[in-house]
Amino acid sequence: MADDDQISIYDEIEIEDMTFDPNLQIYHYPCPCGDRFEIAIDSLRDGEEIAVCPSCSLMIRVIFDANDLVKEEPKQEQVKSEVKVQA
């Protein structure tokens, strides 16, 4: 974010305390409003550190080292299986 002084941060949370959802590729953490703060792993890799709750105005700063992020899994190539057809 361009100007962190203008952002009101609710809390600072260590990445180890957040949960990673491999299907959505996001880290999340419970918000006091009952929803959860969310930040995409790609955003973290791009240097973003602010996770936002989609239900309220609260934001948290994620404390992390790039080496602590879940490793990007290589895209699996579709393997063509050979099927023998008997005539």
TrEMBL record:
Keyword Iron assigned: yes
PROSITE patterns, per the entry: DPH_MB
Matching Pfam families: Zn_ribbon_CSL (PF05207)
Pathway of action: Protein modification; peptidyl-diphthamide biosynthesis
Coiled-coil portions: none
Catalytic activity: 2 [3Fe-4S](0)-[protein] + 2 Fe(2+)-[Dph3] + NADH = 2 [4Fe-4S](1+)-[protein] + 2 [Dph3] + NAD(+) + H(+); [3Fe-4S](1+)-[protein] + Fe(2+)-[Dph3] = [3Fe-4S](0)-[protein] + Fe(3+)-[Dph3]
Cofactor(s), names only, from the UniProt record: Fe(2+)
InterPro entries: DPH3/4-like, DPH_MB_dom, DPH_MB_sf
Residue ranges annotated for the DPH-type MB domain, each copy included: 9-65
Key words, A-Z: Iron, Metal-binding
Highest taxon in the source lineage: Eukaryota
GO MF annotation: an example: metal ion binding
GO biological process terms, semicolon-separated: protein histidyl modification to diphthamide
UniProt-listed SUPFAM superfamilies: CSL zinc finger (SSF144217)
Protein family (similarity comment): Belongs to the DPH3 family.
Protein name: Diphthamide biosynthesis protein 3
